[in-house]
Amino acid sequence: MKKIKQFTSRLSQVNGLWLPIxxxxxxxxxxxxxxxxxxxxxxxxxxxxxxxxxxxxxxxLVNLAATLQTTVIGLLIxxxxxxxxxxxxxxxxxxxxxxxxxxxxxxxxxLLGLIPLIALWFGNGLSSKILIVSLAAFYPVVLNTYExxxxxxxxxxxxxxVLKLNRLQLFLKVLLPAAxxxxxxxxxxxxxxxxxxxxxxxxxxxxxxxxxxxxxxxQEASRMDIVIIGVASIGLTGLLMNAGLSRLSxxxxxxxxxx
Length: 259
Description:
The protein is mainly alpha-helical. It is 84% helix and 0% strand. The chain folds into 2 domains: 2-35; 48-258, MetI-like fold.
């Protein structure tokens, strides 16, 4: 009975692998259906050879590091700015009236619509990429910070007024901790948007290293194996970053389990 339970437990652990394995098998079958399919569905062996080439030359690591660097810088700039702006709008009705309409107007404009203007002002270099990524991270952090702090229970605000806390103390000791679940939700969204926008800007601004630029060059050279490796690298790295942020969120919000 114990062995059956152990087998069932192990089987449940690998359930999530069945779909990727099935996709890989179908992919390999499609790659063997003739030259027309072989170009689109590159064989797994060819992908493995291309992966070995990129790893051996260090090209994959260099481009991945460049994409991660742009994402992290943009996320930090957009996230910190978004936290400050969202918090200011939440604690100051005047700031809410002044900043709110402009913020809600700008966030309705797709980032793709801003790219021509940003490229005109800042060129096609790293600064433009970071600005776009920062904006992608800025919007969700502002909104979730604002909504989280505005949703803080009134009794906590009343206690802070009894204790005669000033606005900075109110922000740091009451609003920020109480709104942390909502803020972390915004950071999670910001991370996803920042990662996606980084790759997007690298595809549009094909200057400098990055996974997007690597895929663009590979596509022009008809190296579909490298394109597939780039797509897989983007997906797996995004998954790992999301898992890391989820673990960090659980640690920061560990107090909720003892309430």
